[in-house]
Amino acid sequence: MRNITKMLADVGYVVYQEDFEKPFIEVSADFYRGESQQYIDCCDCGEYLKKAEKRLNEEIERVSHYLDLKTEAKITNVVEKEMIENLKRCLQSLACAKGRNVLRKEPMSKDIGEDDIFFFNDKFTSKFYKVKIGTVVAQKESEPEKLETRQRVEEDRKPQIEAAIVRIMKARRVLDHNNIVTEVTKQLQSRFLPNPIIIKKRIESLIEREFLERDKEDRKLYRYLA
After folding, report:
1. What is the dihedral of CA 164, 165, 167, 169, to 10 degrees?
2. Domain boundaries defined on the chain
3. CATH 1.10.4100.10, domain 1-120, yes or no
């Protein structure tokens, strides 16, 4: 009974992730990207930060009342990325781009830090009434950041892979390792291509949690237990 309950919870969470959470995060990212630009166009820096903090608190409150708590970290990351990183790029364009800058900052560096101080560059001049400011593009991820992103993606995919294995084994009852990998890949390929090594690890995890067992005579065969 415990295994069946856990299986239903896993499958239900995968449905929640795919049918609601993923599109919700994508729509939220688009919304805050646009709103961030609107705030930059009409607000000073202090007002912008107050609005960004208000939005962040609103999303945390919404998650606590209506969504799975695991969604909180994801939506928080979206708000911070779209609201704060967009502001950082704007400040970089004004203070860190090549050529004469409208703003100066201390300490002088190409990156924006939490303790940096910005002030108007009184040496800035232009013969034009309107000044075009070059936009600083988003920085590429560093190797540690790329590794962290890959690990986070793999962690998010674990319940989806496990749910696919459980569905397949519940229907087939007995199956060898290669066929499990093939079937799981077919089921998930429209979303992502699962790594066979990760599938193997999820099979081992399901064995430890007594969803599956290895055949006593043929170790390449797995049996469904729940």
Report:
1. 160
2. 1-120, 143-224
3. no
d(CA 167, CA 73): 28
* Per-residue pLDDT reduced to its tens digit, 156-214: 788 889 999 999 999 999 999 999 999 999 998 887 888 899 999 999 999 999 999 99
How distant, in Å, are the alpha carbons of 36, 90, 111, 118 from that of 48? 8, 12, 20, 15
- Tokens 């397949």 correspond to what residue? 168
Q: Which fold has domain 143-224?
A: Arc Repressor Mutant, subunit A (1.10.10)
Residue 152 neighbours by CB distance under 10 Å: 13
* Prior bond of 107 cis (ω within 30°): yes
Q: How many CB atoms lie within 10 A of CB 10?
A: 19
Q: Which long-range contacts (CB under 8 A, 24 or more apart) does 94-97 make?
A: 94/118, 94/133, 96/136, 97/133, 97/134, 97/136
Tokens of 85: 């990183």
Q: Please compute, for residue 209, the number of CA atoms within 13 A of its CA located in the half-sphere on the CB side.
A: 18
Place of tokens 């400011």: 133
Q: What is the pLDDT of residues 94-116, one digit of tens each?
A: 777 666 677 777 777 767 767 77
